[in-house]
Amino acid sequence: MTETIEVMADDLLNNDCNVTRSSSRKVTFPTDESIVSGYMDPPDPWGKGYNCTTEELVCAYKAACDANGVQPHRHLLEQLQGIDLSVCNDRYEMLSCRNLRLDSRQVEALEEIFKRVQFKTLDFESSGLDEDSAIALFDMIEYYESCCKLNIAHNTRIGLRGWQMCSRMLKKTPCLQTIDLHGIPLSEQSIPALVRSLRIGSTLVTLHLEHSNITGRNLLILVTALRINESLRELLLADNKMTSSDGQHLASLLRNTPTLQMLDVRNNALQDTGCAYICEGLYEQQGGECGLAALVLWHNQISHEAMPAVSAALAVNRHLQTLNLGHNLIGSEGVHLLREGLLRNRTLLRLGLQWCRIACEGAVALAECLAESPQLLRLDLRDNQIRTAGLIALKLALSVNKSLTRLDLDKDIKKEPSMKDYAEQQGALLEAIGALLQRNRAQARDKELRQLDEQQRLMEREEETSSQDSLQRPRFVPPQPSPIATDDGDASNDDGAPSRPADLSVSTAEVSAPFACVTSPTDRVLGVEDIVVGFNAAAGANASLLLVAPAAATNSDGDAGASALATPQHPLSNDQFEIGSVGDADLSSLNIPESTAQLQDESADQPHQNESTTQLQDDSTAQLQDESIAQSHQDESIAQPHQDESIAQPLQDASAAQPHQEELIDSAQVHS
Q: Which domains does the chain carry?
């Protein structure tokens, strides 16, 4: 046995030696021209969609149904007949297959539709998709980029392979921005396959996971995947039976995903502890450039004990615009605890406190916040016990407040046994509150119209100023050297060599272009960025520069334009300086090298000074100062429209985002 092993080892060594000897052989490859013998164009997924008519679309769908042995759905035929492909080839609004009970063969027949038409929304809610039909559907959506929004809610028979295909579709379909998966319970095996596409490279903006068993470990897996996600803006996690411990995962989500704009966790059981965790995440977003803009905590068993944490987060947060605390037992005591945060907050626009057991004492505290709030747009106080005293406080606050445009109150009269005419007083107060809200709405509309008009005028003025500025920009003309006359009438120094003036002007002929000064032709408009200042060590003992702009620059037509020199708006660096009075400037602050300082000292020791050269320098310096001042005023007039636009833009963004965030206040009660 030992001899056999030794023989096998010798054979292996001999084989290794043979391989070593064979590796010395040379390998040649064909030339580049002969490597590629041909090529094919990639297939066009929408090749059959060009110049397609409605009749051809309907006939193609019917033929596909016949080929797959299924009957075409009448509801789909009605939708296809309403599509006019001759009018527009853009995406159509919706194709609805809701409640149609589709199997794999019927889904395969839909490919003839996706070949020819693209949609904004595909609705397959409660359509009975199983694993095979879901895989076929996801594959077609990925290949044809069929939709921007996909709804496959309440399809509970999709297995692990289906979710893996869904993850691939989400990753490779850049047009898909919204997917609705509510009502599909996800297991611990399917949730990792789904969220794998949400890490890097995802383009998904909105994710619906309501009633999907996103709690505990599943929530942790989702939050971990979203830590490096930069595209998701809206995450809806309602009705997932979350507990207070899940608040830690949500707080981690807010800390590590600042790009998330809306979080909806309504109808869970986060309680006071979970709410406090979420507020810690909001508190830590105070210093970031972006953060959560809308938070829905409707019906989460929250009491007044969580309000100090909410108040602390509101006091420092600069991103939150919508907060819905409805259907929680906050009470008037919780409103008093929330008051300090509301007074210090300057970004909250919408506050929902429906069915929070708020009485007149809480209404008085909210009235104090309204009187001091310059930005709150809507306050929801429906289904609370606010009577005459609370209505009086709200009316007085609205007489001072100019921003609130919607205050939701109960229209029915609250009984007050201690008052005889409570019905008349409450009715009159409700009418007065409505009138004040109408006044605020009218003022808001007028203000918005004025801002739009002012912005339009500023844009027109900016265009006119920029066009005039392009004609008045200075042209660079190098100054001519002024020789110093000696007693003999020659421009020479004691050594007999040609002498240069002892001031800071020098001709461009004596400075080499690569490392002294970059000049431009006379027909080119010169800006500050085109001027590069340096020193030529080989130019002589007194080398230095002075850039002189003439009083007027002449163009090719012989017309003289006003000369202006732009002043740099950025901080001075080591190789830049502010153009101004050069003759009297302190050169020690310019960070001049030692060789340059020595040159300046030697030039200062020379006894010869020419009066004409000194006069030229003073005139040029004064001219530079006047032109610099004139240009600075012109730059301020140009920059003013941009400042006004930055003021008007947040108001427009707030008004544009208002309809979507208003739904977070109104629709929360539907799911309670």
A: 121-446 (3.80.10.10)
